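Figure 6 in text form: structure in, sequence out.
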């Protein structure tokens, strides 16, 4: 009987840990990558990330680029500068926007041009407050510019 209870308890614990892991999925919205021209070796990928609990984006990988890094652009002494970041904090339930001129994913050493209307596979690696890593694979459409916001692209102002 005690073996049964121990087995039941361990199965319950395993089920709960799977349930908790499933809750750490980061919501990815409005993702896109900027199209390139022949010979261009770098571009950016952009998206909005919302984590259900405090999490960090710690790495990005893709088969289309030799290097994929988390970058930040900001003004420094009147000059716009870009730098790689080891990670990006995602506070609980707060949307963090990766957009041109701000935080973004830099794709460098591109293996071929990124053509408009194609897509790029990205693997995002997150680390939660307990240090547990999780990976999320997404497919990102390639566009020449930021896609119109839903509901705002159908009319002119």
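Output sequence:
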């Amino acid at each position: 009987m005690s073996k049964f209870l121990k087995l039941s308890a361990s199965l319950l614990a395993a089920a709960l840990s799977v349930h908790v892991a499933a809750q750490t999925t980061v919501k990815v919205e409005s993702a896109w990558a900027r199209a390139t021209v022949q010979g261009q070796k770098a571009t950016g990928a952009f998206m909005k990330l919302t984590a259900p609990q405090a999490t960090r984006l710690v790495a990005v990988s893709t088969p289309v680029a030799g290097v994929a890094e988390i970058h930040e652009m900001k003004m420094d002494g009147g000059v716009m500068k870009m730098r790689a970041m080891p990670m990006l904090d995602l506070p609980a339930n707060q949307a963090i926007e990766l957009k041109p001129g701000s935080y973004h994913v830099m794709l460098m050493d591109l293996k071929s041009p990124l053509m408009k209307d194609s897509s790029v596979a990205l693997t995002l690696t997150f680390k939660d407050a307990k240090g547990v890593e999780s990976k999320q694979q997404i497919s990102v459409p390639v566009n020449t510019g930021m896609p119109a916001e839903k509901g705002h692209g159908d009319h002119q102002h």
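Caption detail: The helical segments are 2-23.
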